[in-house]
C-alpha cells in the first residue's frame, strides 16, 4: 500500500512539473513515509515550494518534517499519523487531524543523508513561519551552514516578511553571501565581502575554491576582491585559532587547579599524601547529584539552579568526610608518611566501592541547565562552550575565596603558621591538632567543589576520581609544596603546555613530553616553582 | 566494636588493596566457569555488567537441569582494567580452580595478554567483543564479529548513496592494539578503493583521556577543508566515549555536519548524556537493544527481572551487544559441552562444528569446524533522543566471518 502511494506520488510528480507543484499534504506525507529516496524527494519539494507556498501549508509541512525527524511519524496503511511523543499509542491523522490508534504503523528511521535534507527543509520552514525571533534565527543559522542548498528566493521572501530589524539584517547578509556565483559582478564582489565579514574555516575554503575557478581569472576586480577577502578571513581564522588555544589551555588549567587546590593545602600543611583526594572529588559530584534529585522532588521549577545550590552542599559533604577520615585514621599516622599513603589509598578503594554498592556504577544522569550546555561561536572558528566557561569562572572564584580564607581570616593565619613551623606554632599555644583537622576539612571541601565544577564536563561514576590524583600531585609538586599561587601557576603551565603540544604531536606524546619536562624541571629545582619558606 | 590498631588497619588496607580477589568454591557435582571482567578502573562501567550476564545465563541453564547433569558455578574476579592482571587471574582460574572455560576481556589488549595463558594451559576463552580480527587461536572462541562483518559494512554504508557519501575520514582512537589495527585495515580498505592518503587523519589519545577540546577543534577545521563529506571514525574506549560526545555536541557539530561512527559506542555510553544534540551518530554491532523479535523482548525482560531480583548495580533497561554476546557464549559453551558429553577442552572444541544458537538479536548464530569464529548478523544503529540506538540498517542474514583482513 505504501509502495502504491509512493508510486502514485512519483506519477503525480511526473505529470505536474516540480517547480509548479503545490505543497500537497497527502503526497508529502506519502513521500516522508516512503523509502530513503522518497524522503529526500519530499524534503526537497518542501524547499522548492517554500518560495510560493502559503504559511499555513508550510507550517503543516513543518509539523510533518518535525514528526519524521523526531520519530513521531507513524506510517500505516490508513495514512500517516503524527504522535505527540515517540512510541505513543495514538496520534493525529496527518491530513484530517482526527485522533486514531497507531495499531500496526511503523515509525521510519531517518538515514543520515535524509536527515540533513529534512533539517534543511525544517530550517527553511522555521525561517518563514517561526513563531519567535529565536526560532527564525535558528532556521537562518542552519541554512547558512548549508550554503547553496536552498534557492535565494527563500531568503528574499524571508527578508520581506521579517519584522525584527536585527534578524532582517542577518537575512540580508546571508542573501548577499549566497550570491557568490551570481553572474552580476557587483553582486559577486559584495558576496565576497559578506562572506569575509563572517570569517570561518568553511568560508575560507569557499573563497579559496572560487579563487581557483576560471571565473576569478577572467574578472580581475573579482579576483582582487577575493584575494582581499581571503587574506582577511585567513587572519581572522588565525586569531580565532589562537583564542581557541588560549581558551582550551585555560579550561584544562582550571580543571587541574580545581583538582589540586585542596591537595595543595593538605599536602602542604601536613605532608600527608592523600590518595583519596580523587574520591573527594567524586563525593562532591555525587552530592551535586543528590541536590539535583532533591530539587527535582521538592522544587522542580527551580531545577536549573541546582548547580549553584550544590556548591555549599558538596563542600560540606566532602569536608565532613575529610574531617572524619582525619579523626579516625590519619591522626594516628602523622609521623609515618608511608603508612598514611597506604591508609588513604585504602580509604579511596573503600569510598569507590561504597558508592558502587550504594548508588551503582552507571554514569549519573544530570539535567544540564542551559548555562552549562552547548556553546556560542564567538569569533571565526572559536566556540565558547558554556560548561568549560563555568569551570573557569568556578576555579577563579574558588581561588579568590581560598586566598581570602588563607590570608585574611584567623583560621588562615593559623594554617599558615602551622605550615611554616609546626613546633613553634605549638609552642606559642596554637592547637595544631585542631588546625590540622580544619585544614584537612578545607582541603577535602575544595575537592568537593571540584566535583561540582566537573559535573557538566565529565561523566560522573564511582571511578571518576582515580584519573585526577596523579595530575593533581603533578601540579602540586611542580608548583611548590604548600603554595596556592604555585599550584595556580603550575596548573596554567601544564594545561597550556598540553594544549600547545597536542596539535603538533598528538595527545599521547603531549602527555609524555609534559611529564619529561616536569621531571627535568624538578631535577634542577626539587622544591618546585614557588617554595614556601619553612622550618621543620 | 573491636579496637582498631594501626597495625591491624594497615593489614586490612593491604587486604583491600590486594587485586586478585578470586572467590574459591568447592562442590562435587558442579562445573566451574570463570569470568575475567573488570569491576574497577576505566572499563568498570561497561565491563562490570558482563559478570552478571554470565551468572544469569548460568542460572538459566541450571534451571533446566545444568549441563550433563552438572550444575554450573560461576567464579568472578576483578582484573581492575589492568591488562597483565587479566593473564594472572586467568592462569589462577585455569590451574587452581580448574575452570572448564573462561569468559572475559573487553579490550583487545587484555585478550592479547590472556592469549598465551589459555594456549599454554589449553583452556578456552570466550571473547564477547567485536574486534580487529587477524587472530585465530584454537583456544579462543571469537563470539563477536571481526571487521569484515561489522566495521566494513558500516563504513561502506556511510560511503554509499544511502549514507552520506563520505569522502574524508578523521580517525580518533585510544592508543592500543584494537584502534591501531582497525585503522590500519580501514586505510588499506580506502586505498583499495582509490581514496588518496590526504583524505584521512589519524589521532590517538591515552586510555581514560577526557580533555577533547583540542581534538574537536581539529575535527572542525578538518571538516571545513574542501574535498567532500567528512566523517569521524571513533575508536576510543571506556569513559572517553561520553566525554568526546559531550564536547562534540557542545561545540555545535551535528551528525548532519560530521557524523561519528563510534565502533565501541554502546547504549551504556549514552547514559548521563543529553542525546538530543547527538541524534544521528552511528554505531555498528551484532546486536542492538532495539532489535525486533520476541527473543529480544524475552531477553530484555529476563535481564530486568534479574537486576531486580539480584540487586545488580547496573541499569535494568540498558542492554548492550557484549552482554548478549556473553550470554550467547555461555549457551554456546553449554551446547558444545552437552553435545560432546564432556567438559574437556579438546572434546568441547570438536563439538563446535555445526553448532547453532538462536540468540536475542534475531539471527541464528552458527559455527563451522574451520575456526572458532561465530557467524553473527550486522546492525547499524543511529543515536536517538532517548539515549538509545534505532536500527538504521541490518544485514539480511549472518555473513560468514573472515578472520584475516586482506587490507593490511
TrEMBL record, chain B:
InterPro entries: Peripla_BP_I, TAT_signal. It comes from the Bacteria. Residues 1-27 form the signal peptide. Pfam families: Peripla_BP_5. Keywords: Signal. This is Aliphatic amidase expression-regulating protein. The lineage of its organism: Bacteria, Pseudomonadati, Pseudomonadota, Alphaproteobacteria, Hyphomicrobiales. The gene is amiC_5.
